[in-house]
Amino acid sequence: MKKNLAGLAVFALSLLIFNFSKAEVSSKFNLNAMSASDIINSGEKDADAFKLSEPAPTAPKEWTMMVFMNAKNNLSESLLYGLSGKWAQKDLKEMKEVGTTGKVNVVLEYGITGQGAKRMLVGKKSETVLKHDLNADMGDYKRVIEFVKWSKTNFPAKRYMLVLWNHGLGWIDPNLNNAGATGVYNRAILFDDETKNYVRTRELGEILRQTGYVDVFVMNACLMQMAEVAYEIKDNTGLIVGSEEVMLAYGFDYTKLLSYLNANTETTYDQLSDFFINWEKEFFATGANLIGPINIPLSSIPATLSTIRPQALNGLPAYLNAFASAAMKYRETEAVKWAIENTVRFSSLDIKNDKEKLIAPYVDLYDFARIVSDVAGYETQTAAEKLMSYIKTKLVIRSVGLNKDLINGYDYTRVGGIAIGMTMKAKQLPPQLGNIYETNYSDLSLSQSSLWDEFVAWCDATWRN
Predict the structure, then answer these.
(1) Closest listed residue to residue 306, CA positions, set 366, 241, 362, 367
(2) Is 263 exposed, middle or buried (CB count within 10 Å of its CB: 0-12, 13-18, 19+)?
(3) For a Cys staple, 49 with which of 133, 303, 323, 435, CB 3.0–4.6 Å?
(4) Which backbone phi and psi does 216 adopt, to 5 degrees?
């Protein structure tokens, strides 16, 4: 019996993780294993929406939580031996345990495979569908904009929280025309399997520019707590919540989140940060409960969660520039090589096969600077320490790293709370890998405002020459 339960646990854990992408780096990775026949760009479909009822705008409440839940993918259908795994339904059920109250509105845009999208007001043990769009493109950033504007108009509040719920791939916007050749199918953020559309990194900033300020911006998706991503949205939100690493499909506990908001309507960003971090610690300590007595231990899964101050991102380029300039000026090649080889890295582009994380493009910025500072000369060490201090005292409010990557020796308790793009460990990258990028790294706002893209190019050359 124990053996069967242990087997179930291993199988369950393999499905709990967001399966966001596949790509490979050498003969032991099969970059050409997948066909591109089902990766077809589709244009916008004619709208086929109908309103079921038009809500009358309500008096402002304390909070409106707006959840854009894109489950038009495997997050709506995956199962664990039939026990659990309809992750969107699970989270909706959690929201309905509290629902809309006299203090907090809960508004949901719910995209479902084969059913389009339903816009609803979530009540306690109930849901009111206000609009149903059979041809909804849940990967269109303009749809997010329309949803947020609609929510603010009809369910106004003193403060707003926007949750984007889906898979995630950090700053990388994959070129779907080449997805079959590279194995990187979907999972940027808000990827719609039916329309083959998704929200690009620069479009995240456009969402908030057009909708206006939201107090809290939550990414319930993998790998999104990155400097490159956060820099795009920094001017129109007060708090960013996300993970540097992959997140479990289990998601946040929305019952606890809504209970907290109702009991603490005037919560500060620091207090709300404490709530998220404490929940993450408790969840991983307790394990993922499925049904009845079955509880999946999580002690072997590395995890992160952090909250950051968006306004502090305005000062980040200066610290990045000082660090990068010193490293390049004083030719800190050995220090950089040591950091590339040993810094905490997050999931590979081929999560299934690349256990050594040879093509894992994201590192923890704090840990990378720390390792460089241990080896570099005085000027670079000083710049690295100033960057680390800025991350710890100004940029990141709260951060937690849990467990270890035993294969690579990464201790996740070292993470500082924000990831960044860096040279991959593979000495030679397959040419197909270059075809996955729809957006050039140099075109991102952080690259335009800092020298980090030049520094990454310098690190690439240093590592591979």
Answers:
(1) 241
(2) exposed
(3) 133
(4) -130, 130
Q: Tell me how far apart the terminal alpha carbons of the chain are, to the nearest angstrom.
A: 54
What is the bridge-based pairing of β-strands 237-242 and 288-289? unpaired
Which 3 state secondary structure label does DSSP give 322? helix
Question: Residues 256-275: pLDDT tens digits?
Answer: 999 999 999 999 999 999 99
In this structure, the number of other CB atoms found within 10 A of the CB of residue 104 comes to 22
Task: Please write the tens of the pLDDT for every residue from 346-405.
Answer: 999 888 889 999 999 999 999 999 999 999 999 999 999 999 999 999 999 999 999 999
Tokens representing 21 are 């992408």
Residue 125 burial by Cβ neighbours in a 10 Å radius (0-12, 13-18, 19+): exposed
Reduced to 3 states, what is the DSSP secondary structure of residue 289?
strand
Compute the chain's Rg from CA coordinates. 22
- How does pLDDT run across 186-209, given as a tens digit for each residue? 446 888 989 989 999 999 999 999
Q: Which residues pair with 118 in a beta bridge?
A: 110, 132
How do 61-71 and 104-112 pair as beta strands? parallel
Structural domain spans, the chain? 44-78+85-311, 313-464
Sign of the C-alpha dihedral computed for residues 374, 319, 336 and 173 taken in this order:
positive
Contact call for residues 358 and 25 (beta carbons, < 8 A): yes
Fold of 44-78+85-311: Rossmann fold (3.40.50)
Residue with tokens 């000082």: 322
